[in-house]
Amino acid sequence: MGSSMQLFISNKSARTGWLLLILLFCIPASYAANEAFTIRSVETRLRNQVYTLSAKIDYHFSEPALTALKNGVPLIVLIDLEVQRERTWWLNKEVAELQQGYLLLYHALTEKYIINNLNSGAQENYDTLHAAVSALGNIEDLPILDAKLAENKGRYIVSLHAYLDLEALPAPMRPIAYISSKWRLESEWYKWPLQQ
Amino acid sequence: MAIAAIKRLFSGAKPIAALFLLLLTSLGLLSDAMHSSTSLGRLYTPLLFINVCAVILLVGLIIKNLYALLLALRKGTTGAKLTARLVLLFAMLTFVPVSIVFYFSLDFLKRGIDSWYDVRVEAALNDALELSKSSLGLRMRDLLRQTKSISTELSLIPDELTPLSINDLRLSLDANELTLFGGKGQILASSSVEANKLVPAKFDDKIKIHLRNHNDYVQLETLPESELYVMRVAVLVPSADPVGEERILQGIFSVPERMNNLANSVKNSFTLYREVIYLREPLKTSFVFTLSLVLLLSLLMAIWVAFFFARRLVQPISDLVDGTQAVAAGNYKTQLPMTGKDELGFLVHSFNMMTQKIAMVTDEANRSQQQLAEQHAYLEVVLTNLSSGVITLDAERRLHTSNAAASQILGVPLTTYEGFSLNKLSHEHPQTLLFIDMILTHLENQDQQWSEETTFFNTTGRQVLLCRGSILSAIDETEQPGGFIIVFDDITNLVQAQRNAAWGEVARRLAHEIKNPLTPIQLAAERLRHKYLHKMKPEDAELLDRSTHTIVQQVETLKEMVKAFSDYARMPHLQLSPTDLNSVINEVLDLYRENPAGCRFEVSLDETTPQIDADNGRLRQLLHNLIKNAFEAMADQPQQELSIKTRCMEKEACRFVEMRIEDNGPGIPEAMLGQLFDPYVTSKPRGSGLGLAIVKKIIEEHGGMIWAENREGGGARIVIRLPVNKELQDGLSADTHHTTGNSDAAA
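ok -> structure tokens follow
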């Protein structure tokens, strides 16, 4: 009796539990197959010993996201950027990594859409959502890398990935956002060779 | 290792309490994180994940425990039913109040959140926002009008004077900044309230487009990283020259502080209200979710704790049940693990004390029993090895114990009569009647100690027994005797030896005393005859001749008798040598083949009989005596038949050669059977009575046995057994052992 009534989790049941847990958290991820953000083009240039990046990104915000925006919920779009040097016999070496954040907000008094660059603090007002989203998708001459860091021989790859930061949403919205495909707004990783 | 660690983690009360506290803390944090925008808000998702994991873990644990409990119930394991009842009770006690609280909380929660939304509040806030917009719009229109007026003034000022007059115009407008742009966006003139500001606010393309369509532009704008508003006004400067370059005047005006603050307050309230109303449903869902999580965790935790405490509570009881069963099965050394200092702990302690005492008592009893058994065995060995017969009777005079010697002496298997009265024994074995009567007489007389010599007739002949008896002292405190003990010895041989010694002494003295005067008597008679025979008359001479002849002849007879006595008394020392009994018999028989009576001999000699250690001369004498004796016994028979048989026989690991001499005479009178081999016992009128006494003496000197019995068909039988040659005996016994060993090995 004593041994059979042990209150511990066995190896087998632990494995089953973890499997269930992983499945539970994998289901919402599988809904994110429809691509909401699309990176149209990426271009890099070397200016004054600094590599700059220009990109065109199409943002298609879902209906719930736009409703939330119009109701005063700020949306944060994050752009992850990585520069890697390719290696033949080993994993690529990461040269630089940076994250660019943009806050999109509707201002009720001015009736304007505001885009705030979280990295630089620069702020722009736009009359329409379309104008704001277009401006958001237009990145120009973003300095990404000092030329000295890319002096080694080999091919350098720039990877770009844009997504809506769900953790920035108000806490009550987060559980729904995590399990709803309409809130999984992100682009695929876009790779582009670093050019001078 | 990891499994052992998890076991330890989930088996103690403290880890469970710690886990419970951790879960409560995480639930509290989760609740706080839901309406917190600080760093705690960032923890919301991990906390949610942790709590969901905890629920899954608890569900897994409970399912496992339920499964184990079901198995235990099906097997009928001790304590399973009690555990099931306790768990059910705990679960019910938790589920009912928690469900009630959950139901009402849910209701209050929904009503509470719904009550946040109020149409009047929304309308008021909308109105306030509209009012702010109108107020600001009024000011903006005013500023536009003033700027337009200034632009008309500016159009009249020559281009080269514009930079000089722009500052005055700015001051008249009370603008923060006033800039004149050319058609391509180039700055023609600018003035700012901040004297050191070199670059004026930039002129946007979208303003230019707007101006082309509407001729003027006025907008309220927010400044980055501040709560301040500015008003941007831009107008086309009328040109006197229709083909001249288009110019734009842009003025940046600050909003009065009071108005700025009020507008911000209204905007913030409005935004917050809209957000809250928008988040009403998600918030409701989240609260319900969190509340359900709390309920589920509490319920699962309660069930798990129920399992834990049921196990803790049932464990000592089930230990006690197992312990009791073990004690019932005879395992008195069962010790249960101590559980605590409560009543159950006291019960376990008492049980342990009880089993310790039982174990001690049982050990003591076993030791005593062992000692008793050892003493009994010792007594048994002593009794078995006693040559004296020992029997004990209980108070009811039933046979209680007897030793092997008693059975041997009495010739009765006494062990089969243990528990029966002595009368049964005497009834079934009449030869013991005298012996038992003697015992019973003494018992009747209640003699404390007695001793008596009695004669006992057995199948082997007459036995003289010396019996001693006494009453055993009472075992318990009653005055009844505890029983009786009778010890008896077969002193037949002793009596016989004493008798033989006495007869030997008599014979020696007779020989000595009689032999001495015989020679003078014979010589005197011969002298009388020699001196007077020829001198006497023929009648007297004949008398003398007959008388002296009689004297001489009788003296000769007496001499022979004395010689026989002397021989009996003083037999020379034995000259033992390996002898074949069969050949000695044949040699002796040859002397009797030509007997006058025409006796028929039946000789059956076993050729396999081994040699014996014997004095050849004595053996011949023995045979002569026996054959002569037989002839004398058969003297009156018309057809005399003498049978001599030898055979080899084994008895009690000592091999004997047996010789039987049988005649067809009248047999031995029953009264003489016991004393047949005593000196001077004879049935013959002329016998000396020493023949068979000498035979017995020779046999005893050779270490053999002799007895006489009557044949069933008439006649007597003398049976002699002589031991086989010592070396041959050893060889044979070695062979026997060897054979036995081989047969054992074969088996």
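The two ends of chain A are 75 Å apart (CA to CA).
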